[in-house]
Specification:
Four copies of one chain form a homotetramer. Chain A is α+β, with helices and mostly antiparallel strands and 481 residues long. Chain A folds into two domains: 3-247, 4-Layer Sandwich (Glutamine Phosphoribosylpyrophosphate, subunit 1, domain 1), CATH 3.60.20; 266-439, Rossmann fold (3-Layer(aba) Sandwich), CATH 3.40.50.2020. In chain A, helix 14 links the parallel strand 20 (353-358) and strand 21. Chains A and B meet through helix 2, helix 3, helix 8, helix 11 and helix 12 of A and helix 2, helix 3, helix 8, helix 11 and helix 12 of B. Strand 24 of chain B pairs parallel with strand 3 (53-59) of chain C.
Chain lengths: 481, 481, 481, 481
Amino acid sequence: MDGMCKGLHEACGVFGIYAPGRDVARVSFFALYALQHRGQESAGIATSDGHLAYLHKGMGLVAQVFNEENMRPLQGHMAIAHNRYSTTGTVSLRNAQPYLIETLHGPLGIAHNGNLTNVNKLRLKLLQRGVGLVSGSDSEVITQMLAFPQQSNSWEVRIAAFMAEAEGAYALTILSKEAVFGVRDPWGLRPLVLGEFPNGGWALASESCALSTIGAKLVREIEPGEIVRLDAAGVTSTQGQPLRQRALCIFEYVYFARPDSILEGQAVHLVRQRLGEELAREAPVEADIVIGVPDSSTPAAIGLANALDIPFTEGLTKNRYIGRTFIQPDDRLRQMGVALKFNALDANLAGKRVIMVDDSIVRGNTAGPLVRLLRQAGAKEVHVRVSSPPVRHSCFMGVDMATQEELIAHRLDVEGIRQHIGADSLHYLSYEGMIRAVNAGAPRPMTYCTACFSGRYPVPLDEAWLQQRKSRKESFETLRG
Amino acid sequence: MDGMCKGLHEACGVFGIYAPGRDVARVSFFALYALQHRGQESAGIATSDGHLAYLHKGMGLVAQVFNEENMRPLQGHMAIAHNRYSTTGTVSLRNAQPYLIETLHGPLGIAHNGNLTNVNKLRLKLLQRGVGLVSGSDSEVITQMLAFPQQSNSWEVRIAAFMAEAEGAYALTILSKEAVFGVRDPWGLRPLVLGEFPNGGWALASESCALSTIGAKLVREIEPGEIVRLDAAGVTSTQGQPLRQRALCIFEYVYFARPDSILEGQAVHLVRQRLGEELAREAPVEADIVIGVPDSSTPAAIGLANALDIPFTEGLTKNRYIGRTFIQPDDRLRQMGVALKFNALDANLAGKRVIMVDDSIVRGNTAGPLVRLLRQAGAKEVHVRVSSPPVRHSCFMGVDMATQEELIAHRLDVEGIRQHIGADSLHYLSYEGMIRAVNAGAPRPMTYCTACFSGRYPVPLDEAWLQQRKSRKESFETLRG
Amino acid sequence: MDGMCKGLHEACGVFGIYAPGRDVARVSFFALYALQHRGQESAGIATSDGHLAYLHKGMGLVAQVFNEENMRPLQGHMAIAHNRYSTTGTVSLRNAQPYLIETLHGPLGIAHNGNLTNVNKLRLKLLQRGVGLVSGSDSEVITQMLAFPQQSNSWEVRIAAFMAEAEGAYALTILSKEAVFGVRDPWGLRPLVLGEFPNGGWALASESCALSTIGAKLVREIEPGEIVRLDAAGVTSTQGQPLRQRALCIFEYVYFARPDSILEGQAVHLVRQRLGEELAREAPVEADIVIGVPDSSTPAAIGLANALDIPFTEGLTKNRYIGRTFIQPDDRLRQMGVALKFNALDANLAGKRVIMVDDSIVRGNTAGPLVRLLRQAGAKEVHVRVSSPPVRHSCFMGVDMATQEELIAHRLDVEGIRQHIGADSLHYLSYEGMIRAVNAGAPRPMTYCTACFSGRYPVPLDEAWLQQRKSRKESFETLRG
Amino acid sequence: MDGMCKGLHEACGVFGIYAPGRDVARVSFFALYALQHRGQESAGIATSDGHLAYLHKGMGLVAQVFNEENMRPLQGHMAIAHNRYSTTGTVSLRNAQPYLIETLHGPLGIAHNGNLTNVNKLRLKLLQRGVGLVSGSDSEVITQMLAFPQQSNSWEVRIAAFMAEAEGAYALTILSKEAVFGVRDPWGLRPLVLGEFPNGGWALASESCALSTIGAKLVREIEPGEIVRLDAAGVTSTQGQPLRQRALCIFEYVYFARPDSILEGQAVHLVRQRLGEELAREAPVEADIVIGVPDSSTPAAIGLANALDIPFTEGLTKNRYIGRTFIQPDDRLRQMGVALKFNALDANLAGKRVIMVDDSIVRGNTAGPLVRLLRQAGAKEVHVRVSSPPVRHSCFMGVDMATQEELIAHRLDVEGIRQHIGADSLHYLSYEGMIRAVNAGAPRPMTYCTACFSGRYPVPLDEAWLQQRKSRKESFETLRG
């Protein structure tokens, strides 16, 4: 299922490249294209030739924002790039990234995935220092903090000074005139990986799928708290902040990451199959076929089908041409609801007992219509299996999830949800089952941010900021336009 | 695989609706949205309130062309609509459909799927009659032919007169101020179905998936040579031309139609599974996993996997955000070729003997890179199975296939193609196997247009037109802009 | 005063060129630029290289419609071009000109200035012949009539056949693959002149100012009823219809034409000065200064000032950056009315007796605010002098004048108007005075269309068409979009 | 003549309004419309309701940038607005004004006319303080300087602190959440006036013509070094810096200001007439007619004509539809040069001895073609009279004049220029004549910035900045896009 249906918007995709002799803007374009699933609202690329910095960004999909003409001025041998899904701030070009400024140390660009949880404190500090702020984005705050002179004149020192003050989730790519940097918060909440080109040059990306797309080899993950510098000397690592508790967002495994990405040494696809297998073990049921909610639930459905030895097949088709449409269905069409995006394959469903696997249920407004769709197509029984636990808590680490009130599992227990969606049976994967499935293939045991399931937030939360985020108001910012 | 990769562009999707009391423009929008796979170049809707006719059309996807503002003037209780993929004529708004004119009998709109094979003769006849032509589209020719007065003043008589002269493929929806009409050529080359709304009103669509999306029930197919009239009196049928030889495009089953559509009483999805089963029978091979080239080949892959009792799994992921991009990869990126659209799921492939099912090979420039991609991911063996015969002949019935020279099976035999794509083995489904699979579920035996496989064209071809089509030149038309 | 204030929209500017060796599209661009005052709604250029024809047209000013990129495809050695102000038909690209079609005789393009008064009859005839019509424009009707085969296969024969049927005003430039043609209706209602380039090549234009701008020399006017053909053989003249009664629109002298244009051998500027001199003779008044309503009334004001020996000076400035604005003043601003476009030069006006010369009063809604403005600036007396008679009748010959009810002189007598605008005295130039001033410099006595002043229309008017024009409804046309 | 021809671009027009109960955005729109001659590159309006601030700005003319939809969010009872002509920084939206930021003291917006001559020093200081800068504009520098906390928390204190550091020309309107401010540099280099609405409310504008347009009454000029605060308490004045030497740009009288504006108590129109009278005295010549180069030279021409008792008439018409066109004339057209914008009125010129008055000659590339145009039209003699002295020095106070090398009077003496333009005689008004004409109507003797004529700059110039301006390079800024 896609994020727009779910009420789940991944924050962003970031990218960085240092590769003399390559058309770094073009490579960045295709990397953004591979990371498009992480943000469809705006896209941007900033490059530098070591003297000047060049920027183009715009609203829309990568393929809509860039053309040969606006790519031409993006000269240089290094670049950062960004796909955005608004988490804070209004949806406008003013908040699009990369964010690029002039500093005493030359141009400075930032691409940011995550959410600073103490951003209000940081903004206030900047304002008190007499810095005026143009936008409501965390990224501007980060650039202005990085612009502040420190005793030692090095970007690593300035980045570390920022990390000492910042709290929350950040995976950053940073462009200066000397180097490209990759930075990850001390919890490692949002992913960031390092890749190498066969003939020289380095890249940073939110997910390894971007590396495969541009022909770079995955080298390793950036460590929590680490600063990597890419320049003519190769890759230099500094620990900007000590590792706290590893807390990669477990939802990356459940839903966000592309199945062909490698996280912490594991193929996301395989983890999802194992989530399905765990689910099979926890809540087996007799049935004729297993189907997944396309496209993201297919691996879990295949895993569950194999574990139960029930044939996997396709039961729902999804319109491939989903895009933002400004046309709203009228009442009659609205009653048909989800059918605008999904159609049932009646021939596969008629008279069958069906297990429908979904990777997660967030607001709960698609599962019901899908169950109805299957029944209309003749399914005798519909058993819903969800390959993750109930989502009961909002995310404040960079995912624009629904507000707590909108989360169906915050309002209803499992039996209540079953009745609401009209399934014959409903089972969510247990928390332990999820952890087991994720850890089963890990090179070493890991810990995760599971806040949306467990309510345990790894990062201390600023109460005022929390209220503001919960009410989705922008209480601080006073500019519009 | 998508059409853009394949060099296969379905001509168009058409729609028509007569439904007093409904917002017919809005319903048309969602029908076009469901038919988007049949044409992504331009979209248009024409409506009528019985007095005036209203039109909006534009370049791009349905969701890009329409917004609430430009939908508002589209008043009335009947409409026709169109998604276009250019087959003849330049790619410009001038050729977008519906085509709407004023006639002695009031406004007349046409949405056309197909290709008139004697269009040059028809154009010449119009020009000799003193009719000037604005565009290079068949649709303008059809409207001007329909505008010509006949002895009896009825649209059926004028439509039948057009059918008597026209040769080639046409599935039309026609808008007049009295009624909406659906027309299909005497061979039934392009599909057209009739649907009914539960609370009154009728619809026509290229595929039944559009009916499901808008909440209408599939009633039946329009017969070859039939004219149906939708108006206050319900549905009236006239035989405009006697049925010649039934010749529905068999490629609709192989690739074009959406899997959830019903053609000739058969679920397309099931036909595709049977194509996979036939393929399994014809060329079994030992392997560890079966994968399909996403998304269109999945049903055939599942059919083949079940028949061979080899697990079906996902081996390739496809970027969901494919759209027209104006950015071309540079040479280094170009060498990576197809990898911009597909990534391999290494974990599922490493060390495995893989059967990769594709529904068809047209130009043959994706199969090779995909095989390479699988091998890089560690596949030990790659056996390619194609669920249709070799495509050796161009289509002149409304599909913008590659020119004959571009068809790989026109230049190479199967062994040559195998070597070209680097597969361990390659098998195309036999012609007989394909016919068997398609007919197996048909209520009665059918005949098809199989010209692209067999070279047997059901319709006599105008030689000059053929040359012109082959060279893709527009020899007749002298206007640009 | 500009036309938008006045409620006077000149129909169109047309241009044509045959000039091998020149960039005819570029020359056409600058000719349209010089004719911009005749129409600001849409602009277009069609060219031909003798085989194909090329077209670009769009909404807006010439400088907005064209850029180097869309000019590039406009190849060839001949062209026609058009600036449009909507007179009939809705304001949309569908009605923009040139209108270009494919005919049996090759491409055919039309640029038209005027109004066919029997267009309904002609449309009906075309529809009865079975020709469908796409737009509501006269120009499409003309192209389709010209496409009709005649006994002798020559454009002159086809053009003459059109002229035999057409009634009303038309100055046409026509593009075929052999030649460019200029045609003027048998009354010569709208102007059309012929020019020659010093180094070879010919041009046609609505006004001679376009010739000066592109470096061509004015040769002569196209005669009423004449067809001129520009091709490799030079200029060939045919009389398509006998001259009826010469009836050039006298408003061209009063207001429409650019002051630097030459009409019938007379400098428009000089005619306007003489209109002012006549006005001085008819209604002298004691005053301290003479001012004109900028910019079009300046010559008449200078003429009157010289005749009365009262100093001419500037009393009003007009905002140079007038363009279409979508922002409407609110009520408070609306009360200030015309002041948004004009400001008074207080220093020149304070304590003075002022004669304000305007070239015409149509709807009468600017004269009042201007008089008020002058008084606020301290003018002791304001005497309004209008250098043409009262406009009491609508134009049906190609000028989008206000409807009859909107004409202030249709509702009020001169004294009523004087009170309405608050002037100390008001005098309109007499009909005889106007004729005398216009004829004074003419090489031979001429007759004019003075219908808007006299109510005597030179062309018989179709009653139904008249009603339709009067009500500004589009009763015939049934298409929108 | 217009600025684009001249190579003279006025920096900007600024506006401010405090008027509870009025639609301040709408009023701002019409004020910008009246100030459009001061900048056509971008336009913007920022409003505030006392809590939030709202902004819309865009590239192009005021009427192109604003529509009802983007005006709607511009709520509040106070506003600032800006028309821009680029003087420094690249032509891009990033440099458009007003510039709006969030500060510790709430939102802060700036609209700026002028040039800070020590901007590099100020930028460096900001960067050293750790403030990152987004654009290359002076305005961002000013906002960030104003954001810096001072001992006393008042905007007046912060503004005065800025004034203590800033050097060069600035006329500012400033928006905070409490009030609107108007500020003028201690020399009063750029104009700024205060107006009052009849029913309450105050406005600030670069020129009084904007006040007339929006129905406000001119109260007085803002004094050099003065800060005025507009809020609920009315108008409060503070002296931010002591007056240095009054140095209003004398070119405002010569060319920039609209003729209906009042500067220092004088009608600009009258000053220009006196410049013409002085010129008549200095260099009388026998002639038949006096003409002005439209439109800006008309008052001087009338003044000269009256002084010499030679009839003033129109000799040149200028195309009213001048706008930015992207189409360049080809070589043949280029030879005709200025004729694309001007046509001669032959009838007034033939056989005449002509005095052509121009208000100034900057680069000297239009005067020559105009003289040629007059001669082609039959003028027997052409005497050129310029109503200001030779422009020999670049402006660094906010006018984007040509570089020194481009100034014809920097390269040639008067006789050389006469030969260059081909006039029978040429006379520039003397420096003393100009001063006399300007001071003649002044309530008290004034001093002016006459640097472009005299080379005496009132403000000390930073040498590095000067070099940078001269070479038109942006040496400091390192960002693009």
